[in-house]
Amino acid sequence: MIRKFTMGRPIITEAVTAEFMSEKIGAFPFKSKTENGCFSFSFAMRKDDIVYGLGEAVRGINKRGWIYESYCSDDPFHTETKSSLYAAHNFIMLGGSSSFGIFIDFPARIRWDIGYSKSDEAEITICGMDFDIYLITADSPREIVREFRAAIGKSYVPPFWAFGFQQSRWSYHNAEAVDRVIDGYNSANIPIDCVYLDIDYMDSYKDFTINESAFPNFKSYVADKQSQGIHLIPIIDAGVKKEDGYEIYEEGKANGYFCKTADGSIFEAGVWPGICAFPDFINPEVRRWFGSKYRYLLDMGIDGFWNDMNEPALFYSAKGIENALDEAAEAKGKNLDLGKFFHLKDVFMGLSNSRDDYSSIWHSVDGESVNHQSVHNIYGASMTKAAGDYFSEAFGEGKILMFSRASYIGAHRTAGIWFGDNHSWWSHILLNLKMLPSANMCGFLYCGADLGGFNENATRDLVLRFLALGVFTPLMRNHSALGTRDQECYSFENTDDFRDIIEVRYRLIPYLYSTFKKASEENELIFRPLSFDYPDDKIARECETQLMLGEECMIAPVYEQNVSGRTVYLPEDMRLVKLSGTRVEQQELEKGLHYIEVALNEIPLFIKKSKKIPLCQPALRTRDLDKDSLEYI
Amino acid sequence: MIRKFTMGRPIITEAVTAEFMSEKIGAFPFKSKTENGCFSFSFAMRKDDIVYGLGEAVRGINKRGWIYESYCSDDPFHTETKSSLYAAHNFIMLGGSSSFGIFIDFPARIRWDIGYSKSDEAEITICGMDFDIYLITADSPREIVREFRAAIGKSYVPPFWAFGFQQSRWSYHNAEAVDRVIDGYNSANIPIDCVYLDIDYMDSYKDFTINESAFPNFKSYVADKQSQGIHLIPIIDAGVKKEDGYEIYEEGKANGYFCKTADGSIFEAGVWPGICAFPDFINPEVRRWFGSKYRYLLDMGIDGFWNDMNEPALFYSAKGIENALDEAAEAKGKNLDLGKFFHLKDVFMGLSNSRDDYSSIWHSVDGESVNHQSVHNIYGASMTKAAGDYFSEAFGEGKILMFSRASYIGAHRTAGIWFGDNHSWWSHILLNLKMLPSANMCGFLYCGADLGGFNENATRDLVLRFLALGVFTPLMRNHSALGTRDQECYSFENTDDFRDIIEVRYRLIPYLYSTFKKASEENELIFRPLSFDYPDDKIARECETQLMLGEECMIAPVYEQNVSGRTVYLPEDMRLVKLSGTRVEQQELEKGLHYIEVALNEIPLFIKKSKKIPLCQPALRTRDLDKDSLEYI
């Protein structure tokens, strides 16, 4: 059952698609208080209760023992003590002594103190007085998720080829660089379906332009790649370069489509193209306009996009940098004491994504001027909606691949997400694994992490182990940052190991795709915590290094360096299937703890006793997969 | 057997105390090359070989799969992709297909590519042409360590009370704050032996001064604490405040004891006190002078110190800040493009610990002017030697507690180390555990991490689990940074759990102290990787979440949040002993994998079948421990 409680006049986010009668907030059955314009409520947690949710966030599947904040943040250091990543997924769920889920439909800041201040209490603070709270009750966490997901509408299903392996880098600067990637994979006989175009494919980082000298005859180039079964996936950024004569900027300016400052002028801040204006995506008219601009690339044959920098990321504002330079001028010639030195350093370090800058952005909502802080968490989601609505209208559902960095629940209907700028850290294999069920709970099914890690240098074994997790994630993309070591599979020694891993992915695609479609249809998770399936098994309940996949399987990736295997807990008798290229090895294992050897070119998969899953023969492209002749293991 | 190979005219570091005949580098039995003034050598690693060593460093006990750098660094972000921490411990060891150890006695930069560039090859690059390499061969890693340790001299043994529990914070600003800590522990009946004085006890951060208004009548205050069994441990920083009339500065200046710039003037840089001069600790005369200055605090009754900021940490140099401010002035009024903006931001962010600044420091070595880069890695160790030599001379061995942040092998004879400014991250429990055997290999026995984590906020459960590792580390200190949540044990709910944990420490002190003394006497490790003891057991060989302790035990701390236990691998039949306060529970377990429950107030310990260890009754101070009535478990 779902009850809806309304306070004030909530901003319409379109997160929830089902209709519910609003009850007054006074009927909300939790201890609550109002203080400093914020509404807080709390609930007790017993020792063994698990708190699930919050989608893309740091730390465990069980969110207990930390303070999280819903505030879409462009922060590439995904360490344990961060409070926010790129998304605001305002759904949590208590599982244990009692079971309920809570979704807070509120696009500004929310603070989630899940047992940080008091071990046995969760206190949630909504930083505003206009919101809807949905209280979802059912018999189990899994049913709560189903009810919630039914209320927020079916999850986005991407094109079939989006389940192929994808290679990205910031950046493949020109057609030759892209061709080298395709050649590299072809020569190594490693399957691949997509190559990404990061910011450098554009002319001066301007959305909906092509750098013609880097990619001459782009349309025929795209067609040529398509004929080879390769999809090129360009990036689209939220900021629009301020440049006289640039069509998007001129149109946006002429029509008043950009976000404003308090005095009504266009809000400007520096991002990749230098000074930019920011489309007011909260406004439906602006969304229609911006969405239609994707046409330029669609007409070139492009059929997939990733929306980036849409928290929005702001490197600096004109005001911020002016202030910093003033402070520096002030300091000149003086003997700076420590306080003044650190202050000055902090001023420069704090220029990017400054909350002061966010506060100086204004949107137009139904003709009213609304400060950005009130809608911060739907800015990126609204950009994605702009594109998604256009794609649906122009092509119908599921024809165009799209995923976004920033997100809010509701965007799961039109796009996927990736988990942002992670690091080439072993610990991020596990962090990204833990995000999967949490994101699924919030409706985001098409998701995945930058395999191998985005920031800093990866080692061969890290990339292989990261890919071995990615074999199961709907989005399977290797991506890395400017200045880091080459991370394409063919860049490392002995590419056979990489082929063995990625071939397993292609063999699993029919299974993964049908599991995905079913999860979208039936409002199910693709990845479940073991606790969902084995609530009375203490070891399973707390296990966060393994996940249930569909109705048939359990996965347990290796996440440590310099090991030849790992310990796995089987909550029931299962079959261990080791997959490597076309090789399949099977072994019956009993319920309990097992150490299993897993070579760098192997994928371990655990299949329930009464179940079988289909495998097809591998192919170099998804289009060449023979989905009709399947082997069942 | 140890062979010594000499190239050029090495700087004397005093790391090795035994005498060896020098062989020419040409006889060094490894593939080597000389390029750009650097000497590199390499060796092959078979698939199952383990590379041990490098002491205080990031990542695993097995160092394979990364590039490390010996370059003492004040960097508080101990993430997987860092190459250096505060220490330079130039010892590595191959264990597996063949066994050998290598110590490179060279105080400048060394690059250790342990299978990063090529998975099966280690390449080590010594950035200079004057060094000694020691090649140690023996039948096993453990024997190699013994041989090496015999060559570098016996490890420092601190006073007995230094095995008590210690509480620190940046900072307890005055006597009242210190008293509140002692009262807090006394009221909660939690044992404690030491309280730390971080930088604010000084007058304007000047070494060897007391802020009299914060600590009036310091001498009698110290005596009063001593009478309560509490040792106050003040910090000493490397930089000496530039201030006319300040004795240390004036003496150093008058005698030419400070490091110079290229033009012979005193090198100046900003640290806590603002602009500082840096004693030229490489010069024995300066060491004698600076060491004798500790007398001021010893005379007040102080009997323990921690040396900090001795990499040396430089917040900024006068030259650096002037340059940054010039660049800012240049940018003023201009429309900064992205490149210029990021350049400016990088200039400010790069002000601290800049390698350019290090290059502009000059030392006097035997009357010759030597650039800092040539001796960088012994700067901190030399500061520690300054103090240690003075303490030995004045009091004999083992009377004064001392440990340092920066270190180099050799300093293990006069001091311990702590693992620097870690974070309140669960992953740091494991990182700090892994450093223990590595540090032991390099001679550092008295060591430990900031329990609960130094930077950022800790949760109650993290502090308890971190303390449960700390129960076994010679240095057991809870420490946290300015601006973070209170982290003293009595600051959290239900202090009984904390008492249960720390009482176990006090019960174990007789065992831990005798294990420590024996390890120092016999050049043994206190903590060994399981692979040392079970080289043919594949699971044990790769296990890096458990350690052997002494001859009797194995430890396996819990390192994940929200779990009620962990999986442990027993390489042979053992007894599980769970300790909590005065409670002792025992259970025989068979070789193999086990899931064991471990409550937040419990310490699991695994004792070999034929072994027993002593426990004493707990006491609130180490001086009150009855070491004569021991219970054997």
Keywords for this structure?
633 residues; 9-stranded parallel beta sheet; 15 helices; 27% helix; alpha/beta; 6-stranded mixed beta sheet; homodimer
Gist of the model:
Helix content of chain A is 27%, strand content 25%. Chain A is of the alpha/beta class and 633 residues long.
Number of strands of chain A: 38
The profile of the biggest β sheet of chain A is: 9 strands, parallel
Shape of chain A: globular
Whole-angstrom Rg of chain A:
24 Å
Q: Reading side by side through the largest sheet of chain A, how are the strands ordered? A: 26-25-23-19-15-14-13-28-27
Q: Layout of SSEs?
A:
2 copies of one chain form a homodimer.
Chain A: E1 2-7, E2 22-24, E3 31-35, E4 38-44, E5 50-53, E6 66-70, E7 87-88, E8 91-95, E9 100-105, E10 110-114, E11 121-126, E12 131-137, H1 141-152, E13 165-167, H2 175-187, E14 194-197, H3 218-227, E15 231-237, E16 240-241, H4 247-255, E17 268-271, E18 274-277, H5 284-293, H6 295-298, E19 304-308, E20 316-317, H7 318-331, H8 338-349, H9 355-359, E21 362-365, E22 368-371, H10 379-395, E23 401-404, E24 407-408, E25 416-418, H11 426-441, E26 447-448, E27 450-451, H12 460-470, E28 476-478, H13 496-521, E29 527-528, H14 530-533, H15 538-542, E30 547-549, E31 553-555, E32 565-570, E33 574-580, E34 583-589, E35 592-597, E36 603-608, E37 614-615, E38 631-632
Parallel strand pairs in A: 1-2, 7-24, 13-14, 13-28, 14-15, 15-19, 19-23, 23-25, 25-26, 27-28
Antiparallel strand pairs in A: 1-12, 3-4, 4-11, 5-8, 6-10, 8-9, 9-12, 10-11, 16-18, 17-18, 17-20, 21-22, 29-30, 30-31, 31-36, 32-35, 33-34, 33-36, 37-38
Helix pairs in contact in A: 5-10, 7-8, 12-13
